[in-house]
Design brief:
The chain has 150 residues and is mainly α. It has helices at residues 2-28, 31-38, 44-63, 68-98, 103-113, 115-145.
Length: 150
């Protein structure tokens, strides 16, 4: 029984590491804050919006420990920001490398050349979905353990 409980503790520690790592990536590793705001060829308004989404998602993932509802919203924002990063990357490859008008050609080029980057993108989506599900689980647990009526 103790070995089983040890595995549960390791899983919980791994969940904390995933949540904090995703929050740090969104807060400090977001290329949108450095590249998009600094580059003049991009629209500043949308760059600031994307940076705000990443920042709110990062803080919300940490606030999850106090309020799981904010963690749910942050998980959705994290998945949205990762999706927007992928779309931006495909658009950047389309405009700067292929010089074409087709997103499908750019996506094919990313699949052919940057497949290691796609592995990291899949990990980010998985981490976002894990954080969203974990926050939802904590919210349901909080709702069940509250006294009735709510």
């Amino acid at each position: 029984m103790e070995t089983f409980l040890k595995y549960l503790k390791v899983e919980a520690i791994g969940g904390h590491i995933i949540r904090i790592s995703l929050a740090c990536l969104l807060l400090f590793g977001g290329f949108t804050k450095l590249t998009l705001i600094g580059a003049l060829e991009y629209n500043l308004f949308w760059s600031i919006i994307l940076a705000a989404i990443e920042t709110f998602a990062a803080f919300g993932l940490i606030i999850h420990y106090k309020k799981p509802v904010i963690g749910i919203a942050a998980g959705v924002l994290a998945i949205l920001s990762i999706f927007l990063r992928v779309v931006f990357s495909i658009g950047w490859v389309r405009d700067h490398i292929l010089h074409s008008q087709s997103f499908l050609d750019a996506f094919g080029a990313i699949l052919g050349v940057y497949n290691n980057g796609l592995f990291h993108i899949a990990l980010l989506f998985g981490a976002g979905i894990y954080c969203l599900g974990n926050s939802y689980k904590a919210y349901i647990k909080e709702r069940i353990t509250k006294p009735w009526p709510h």
